[in-house]
Design brief:
32% strand, mainly beta, 288 residues
Amino acid sequence: MSIKKIFFVFASLLAMILASGAALAANPDKCEPAEEFLILENQQYALCANATCTTLNQVAYCGCDLLKGNSISLPFDFGDGENVCTVNQDGRGNGYRVSTYSVPKRSVFPEGDYALYTCPGELNKDKYGGVAAASGSYAQCDGGLCFMSTKGRNFPGLDKLGKKELVCSCPITTNCEGSDANPEGHQIGGPYDGVNGCDPNACLKCDAARLTDAQCETSNPANFIGVQENVPVGSAAGTPAILSCLLLDGEVPRLNSCFCSCDEVNEDGSCAEWSVHDESPLDIHCGL
């Protein structure tokens, strides 16, 4: 999904929320520019990197972690000096938070029980002898609005949320955007075992909610994504590394990392057989 589309969804949801009541005054000193991004300093936020999601009416609803500290996001500038940072602060008195990014502690090597899985694109599909790029859809949660009223509650399509979990609404990036959008694929979160390493079943989500060429040619391809489809949270490959470097000033911990390789394809172009390759620990070289 393009930045323009993500911004449109974000701004539309935000307008409805802010219209319902006055917001608390935001502190611009808690919003630090970092290249084209913003760092939200010492704020409560939602982290969706390893979330489970369900879909309804072309939107992914994801069970995300409620955290406090520093996080990073695209700015989503709008109005008179408003952006993702001020919006998140405004949410304190209005029952919502914003989904932003920080390094998931559960993905840190060697103790983490999650990993960053790379679903290959056209440029790296043959890294381990693979024959096809991933062609799945994923939830793009940066800037998604999250509802405090869902903490610890039941939500359709999701297990009961924990006391520090809440539901975030995230637009869906489909495979219809083509390989030019993500030439090195996309990255999702998945389970990781300290003994057995990467989980090959996690690679099945590289083709989640895959849309056909005919569906992609329609005016609204996302309309074909079914109700309660388990789409993963994802981003263009390399985005987590960029955000981590900017947020942590180059001091990024080593991460659990897995690479999914499509070794055989079906007649419709979807992957018939995935294999997984453990690349842990992943050392991110920031070059700041």
